[in-house]
Amino acid sequence: MSGLHRVRFTKGHGTKNDFVIIADPDAELELSAKQVARICDRRGGIGADGVLRVVPVEELPDQVGPRLSESSERAAWFMDYRNADGSTASMCGNGARVFARYLREVELVREDSFVIATRAGTHEVQLMPNGDVSVEMGLPSDPSVGPDPEVVLGDTAYRAQAWWVPNPHAVVFVDRFAQLPTELTPIDVNDHGHYPRGTNVEFVEDQSGNDLRAAMRVHERGVGETMSCGTGACAVSLALRSRHDVTDPGLTLIDVLGGRLVVSHTGSGRMDLIGPTELVANGSFESTWWGGNDG
Fold it and tell me: Is 229 labeled as catalytic in the residue annotation?
């Protein structure tokens, strides 16, 4: 891609976890970390927690395609997700829900239930009658490797639980959020080998009674504190179920700063992440502003 042109984008969010969506039907954009960071800059750029590049599965490079499961034949579109600092992540739960909303709204798909592809494989998504979007999150990885991680926030150390869904998470239960600082920084993790590439950290106020529910604050790797995190909500749900010794199918309600997410657990161990999404704006920027493909 060369010469002066305008790059079109859509801005959307899921419980205020916000993303810039860029359609790349010819798979010709090679996003560098610098370009993504510039887009996500809330003062000098558009502003977002991450970028979702929309790419046809058939146009994927060889190093990406084979990592998708056999069911990728049912997925027409690949979600190339980047954190705000330009790093990649295998999955983004809220991003996948916003991605699904976008595909349906611009009629790249014409059904309300379909399959999308990510670096973590393929995921079933469904646009629900009440406006929510559900994404199948798969099965969690076994967290029982080595001692529990320790999260250090300021001068306080907290014992955490390690969960992978499939992104890494360190879940910390606190008595109440009032004991936490206004900003979740500086933060450090003594991971005991759990997180070779860093981790997301969730601070959780358990509010369970007859139902499993919690409030959550999250510090995402490559981003900082965000209003919501879909894979984080799934990790918190798993931690709550373990804490309360729940094994039956059921729902967990997770209140994040940006709203409410619901995690549904089936008898097979499958998790579905459910919540609202919204596409809020369309726009474009000059290719010269972000440097095109100059890396």
Answer: yes
